[in-house]
Amino acid sequence: MAEHDDEALNSSSAVERHAASVGGGTAVVPAEPFENPGEPPHRPRRTDVDPKKARLAERQVATFFYLSIVGSVLSIAAYIAFPIKADDFGTVRLANLFLGLSISLALLSLGIGAVYWGKSLVTDREITELRHPTRGTDATRAKAVEAFQLADKESGFSRRKLIRNSMIGALVAFPLPGIVLVRDLAPAADPNELLRHTMWAKGTRLTKDPTGLPIKASDVTIGSVFHVIPDGLLDKEHMLEEKAKAAVLLMRLDPKDLNPAKGHENWGYDGIVAYSKICTHVGCPVALYEQQTHHLLCPCHQSTFDVSNNCEVIFGPAARPLPQLPIAIDDDGYLVAQSDFHEPVGPSFWERAR
């Protein structure tokens, strides 16, 4: 057995024998490497050999760019000519149809024109690009400027004024539909006034969401929480828009656990306080109440507010406390608002005073 092992140790592998024959090492050197086949023969395009075809292609490219301008203008016209009516779903179909067709015309024409320009008129030649280090030398970087100039020359961007001007016109016209449509999403009235005021006013009763039933102070026990809307909200034409600003959370704490801010001592009633339900971060509904710690949690980004300390932010991205709704009781024992909120509800916006 030992003799057999010694023989195995003294024997050499095929790789070792081949390495010895080529002078050492284990690399295999091919005897006949492949030759570089070179680039295929160049096939000129019709526009390369016929000036008339080149001029025709130039006009065709410009035509596509002009069609893009027409599509952009038609989309604006369609948006104005086919307004959407809340009580007529057919207007939605008509508006979507003509807006889609006109915007598609603008996009497709711009894209086809750009592709056809590159296929028919930009200089056509085969190039083998060599790899270079990530940052070239100063001479190489200077060559980059020359490459841009060469690209301009080969594409004819500066020389072919018809294509250049029509393309610039198409690019200028293309964003216009988006500007018109997005701008029209904003309310016609002053957004500062719309966001600053809600349905709450002096004497407005607090009612349960979604039933609209008024709430008596005696119905609110310590530790309970009510989702509240102003009386009359359910009869409003734009109910959801008003609710997005006026939604409130009503809670009752032991009065000794409350630390009202200066001037807010009379904004609650016997431990009952009301705060906006709209998070001051991005407007999500703050609907999670932890009665042991008196904390309100926004489920979207985990902003946490301390009810016992004027709903100040104790955690999360919200930048300011939840606005408090001043409340009282009327002669029948129902909870009512003393006034509207004294500051805008919801997330901050650029026109806020603070």
Provide a concise account of the structure shown:
The chain is of the alpha+beta class and 354 residues long. The protein contains ten helices and ten strands. The strands form three sheets. A four-stranded antiparallel sheet has the order 1-2-3-4. Strands 5-6-7-8 form a four-stranded antiparallel sheet, with no helix packed on it. The protein has a two-stranded antiparallel ribbon with strand order 9-10.
C-alpha end-to-end distance: 93 Å
Strand order of the largest sheet: 1-2-3-4
Describe the sheet with the most strands. 4 strands, antiparallel
Number of helices: 10
What pattern of helices and strands is seen along the backbone? HHHHHHHHHEEHEEEEEEEE
Which class best fits the helix and strand makeup? alpha+beta
Poorly predicted segments: 1-11
Estimated share of beta-strand residues: 5-15%
Mean pLDDT level: 85
Helical residues, percent: 25-40%
Alpha carbon gyration radius: 37 Å
Q: Report the oligomer.
A: single chain
